[in-house]
Design a protein that fits this description.
The chain has 110 residues and is an all-alpha fold. It contains two helices and no strands.
Length: 110
């Protein structure tokens, strides 16, 4: 399933790049430079990850343990923030209605 999705995304990329070249939005020279830059960035990122794996792996594991412990608290805080925003919006709506009724009542007749 993942390979099919990746294949479809790559095919879509090839089609889009082909359309851009055919409509002369980009030239073949710019396309070649972009492909080389993309390959170099990917290669450098992989080399950097391999070099820093000894440092990054323990840090990422400790973050995952901390996030697992905090996930319930994050959900509770998110629900509390949503409830608070809902309550504040309700109060503002009620206050606006109260002000509009009061303003219409005072200016009813001259």
């Amino acid at each position: 399933m993942l390979i099919q999705c990746l294949s479809a995304v790559c095919m879509l990329g090839v089609v889009i790049v082909g359309l851009l070249v055919m409509t002369r939005v980009i030239s073949l020279e710019e396309l070649g430079n972009g492909i080389v830059r993309g390959f170099l960035v990917t290669a450098l990122a992989l080399i950097g990850l391999c070099v820093l794996r000894g440092v990054l792996l323990p840090v990422l594991i400790s973050w995952l343990v901390t996030l697992r412990q905090m996930s319930s608290w994050v959900a509770i805080v998110a629900l509390a923030v949503i409830a608070l925003v809902f309550a504040v919006r309700m109060l503002i709506f009620r206050f606006q209605q109260w002000l509009s009724h009061r303003g219409n009542h005072d200016k009813g007749e001259l």
